[in-house]
Amino acid sequence: MKDILGLKTHCQSQELTISNPRYKAWVEKFTFDELEKDLGIFDITTKVSLENKKAKAVILAKEKGIFAGRQEVEFFLRGFKSVTYKFNKKDSQVLNKGEIVLELSGPIFDLMKIERIILNLIGRMSGVSTLTSRLVKVAKVANSSVLIVPTRKTLWGLLDKRACALGGGGTHRLALDNAVLIKHNHIKASSVGFEKFLITALCGFIKMQNPNIKFFEVEVANGKNALIAARIFADAINVGVKIPFVIMFDNMKPQEIKKTLNEIKKEYPDDWSKIIFEASGRINAENMRAYAKTGVNILSLGMLTHSAKMLDFSMRIA
Asked: Could you give the dihedral angle defined by the CA atoms of residues 74, 37, 16 and 185, in that order, rounded to the nearest 10 degrees?
């Protein structure tokens, strides 16, 4: 059940489409807004030399990876009626070096104008998707049901989140209004202590009655607070509170997480399976198998987005 629940709470890729105004705004930011900044008044080089010529061009992959960004580029290209295009790859498909992913035709002035926006967008998204795909395979060797998700340490916002999903990962929360996530700074700012703050926040959530909140999560830095959170969540579940509960083990060692999980299972045999468990903090390709083996449901990695290398593409005039 938790595997299915985790996919609903921490993989919200169904929201990341152009039909969603929030996602559309992010796509516009990294296409039309970027074009305006890049273009200035106009492309002076093309205008003084090739303005009236028409041409065909191709976008090709210069290295192997997982393709991402088709939906976003199609949205962008619909703004250029003079340009016709044909995609040869779908999102999530494997790319091989030298493959043509997109064919374009139109005035050279327009092709040169949109080149960098397209290359930057698919380069960034495909880079994130490729890294995610590689790390998903690493983690699933140790735990076939674990979900790999990004954090909010991201350069390209929701586009990065969608790229992670296209690489086989999840999204985590999409915005601050998307889920309750109590972090150490919330508790420290309150000055009332972990247990009291968590109860107060949970009561506030129940009173709010917001059906759009996807889950209720709390960070814990040690086994003691994890057990407190498990007790509070178990009590809430038993009185009928209808929200997925998540305990995030933040910057805890794998052996400590495993020990704590066993204690929670022993202490709450009827309720632990209804709680989602997440590990986060300094997880990377070298240690993620150890974290996956603990039995957590979710691994969140900042490196999926803050350390992803762009996949290399280029445009060639045919």
From this structure: 170
Which element (helix H / strand E) includes 147?
strand 147-150
Pairing of strands 216-220, 180-182: parallel
Domains of the chain, by residue range, sit at: 2-12+131-306, 15-129+309-317
Record the pTM: 0.94
* Right CATH for 2-12+131-306 from 1.10.3720.10, 2.130.10.150, 3.40.50.2000, 3.20.20.70: 3.20.20.70
- Domain covering 15-129+309-317 in this structure, CATH number: 3.90.1170.20
Backbone angles phi, psi at 47, to 5 degrees: -65, -40
Per-residue pLDDT of the chain (318 residues; tens, 9 = 90+): 566 666 689 999 999 999 999 999 999 999 999 988 876 656 555 555 556 789 999 999 999 999 999 999 999 999 999 999 999 999 999 999 999 999 999 998 899 889 999 999 999 999 999 999 999 999 999 999 999 999 988 889 999 999 999 999 999 999 999 999 999 999 999 888 999 999 999 999 999 888 889 999 999 999 999 999 999 999 999 999 999 999 999 999 999 999 999 999 999 999 899 999 999 999 999 999 999 999 999 999 999 999 999 999 999 998
